[in-house]
Amino acid sequence: MSTFDALRISGSGMTLHRKYLDAVSDNIANINTAAAPGQEAFKERFIVAQAVDYGSGTGGVRVAGAAFGSGEGKLVYSPDNPLADDEGYVRMPDIDLGTQMTNLLIAQRGYQANISAISRATDAYQAALSLGKNL
Predict the structure, then answer these.
(1) Which InterPro entries match (predicted)?
(2) What is the pLDDT of residues 36-70, one digit of tens each?
């Protein structure tokens, strides 16, 4: 294990959780985005994480890509909506706000945990550097 692996691993975790936060935020922001019945609704976005091995027995994570939920959505009766069809229906995303809020908390806590790990590693590195100062 290299000296600064803790920083690299936690940094990769921060990047992953930031992208996770971005995806969840987009999902929440578009939860009420209507589409005409013939069009696809907003698709829920998921982040795909992948473990990374740097060859020295240590690793981290990376964003392997994004996956999308069903674009079909659900039909909602909203006759006043300008996108409504002749029967008064619009297509809305099939996204659960409770699930998204839970995902938001998970992503936030993961990000905070990686910040804490970087802070602890930095403190340890600074303590190691100061060992020889008082001799």
Answers:
(1) Flag_bb_rod_N (IPR001444), Flagellar_basal_body_rod_CS (IPR019776), Flg_bb/hook_C_dom (IPR010930)
(2) 888 889 999 999 999 988 776 668 899 999 999 97
Which amino acid belongs to residue 56?
S
pLDDT of 89 strictly over 70: yes
- 62 SS3 class: strand
Q: What are phi and psi of 116, to 5 degrees?
A: -65, -40
Beta strand extents in the chain (DSSP E only): 45-53, 59-68, 74-77, 89-92
CB contact at 8 A, 104 and 20? no
DSSP state of 40: P
pLDDT classification of 134: cutoffs 50, 70, 90:
low
**15: phi then psi, degrees, rounded to nearest 5:** -60, -45
Other beta carbons within 10 angstroms of residue 7's beta carbon come to 15
Q: Is residue 27 exposed (0-12), middle (13-18) or buried (19+ Cβ within 10 Å)?
A: buried
Joined together, the tokens standing for residue 35 give: 């589409």
- Which two tokens mark 47? 């982040």
